[in-house]
Automatic annotation (TrEMBL):
Protein name: DUF5723 domain-containing protein
Organism this protein belongs to: marine metagenome
Amino acid sequence: VQSSITTIDWWHEALGTEQFEHSGLLNTYLLQPKLVYGISQKLNLAFNVNFGLRQMHWNVSDESIHHRDETTLSNFRNAIGSILGDSKIIVRYLINEAGSELGKRFYLGTGLVIPGSSVLTSDPFFLDGELFKSHRHFSLSSGAYKGIIEGQLFVKRNINPVFLGGFIIVEHPFSKSKYGYLPSTMGTISLSASFMRYDQLMSSYDIGIMLAYSSMAKWNDISEPNSESFAISPSIGYLFNTNFGAVSINIQKPLMIFGAFVDNEGDIDQQSNVWQISLALRLKSQIKEK
């Protein structure tokens, strides 16, 4: 089970007829239970689902058609409210498995992203030239089915860093959502290292860096502003073991190289400050070998 909190402190300049600066906090709270089933010694099946909400705090006293205090739990003119985000089903093949011994652990996987029910139902940018109306920019799901390809390689050693490795994941939409949205193709490369402390908790310090690229998304075949992006996210974490499983705490600081963390209506002056903290619990298996 993993939970995470992401906060985006954002600002952008005056927009259209709203001749005042816009600013706010967009917070995302997620709970991500995950199940892994071993089909064979080489093949396993993983399933996870996102539950949560996104919450906008509007920091300006002026009213805006673009932003307001609201969450993804409620419906809006162009949004369906729900706690259900995307789900993923992934089949992984273990090419090299060292288990608890020293050596390499390498697998390849493929799977499917199943869209959740928290979605936008129309273009919040009014790209077809329609008159601007009150709208929402955010949801938990893109509303589109996607394919997944991934690979992971980790090496366990008897000196620090004990674990070295990383993963590559690509998610590509099969088609537009039923509301006309074609989400970005997303590619992620993550590298990490774990330094054991060899204490009673068998704890470790973890450092990492993640590179994330998103291609241009489209509403009704029209490019979505600022949707193409590239971000670098350094991270630091701490893991310790308990009687019921392993607990890890991780802090990430995403840095946007180009693109935007928060959607807006065009190429305008903007700023954002993003932090993410996650807490994960990996329960010990209760299945005993015969």
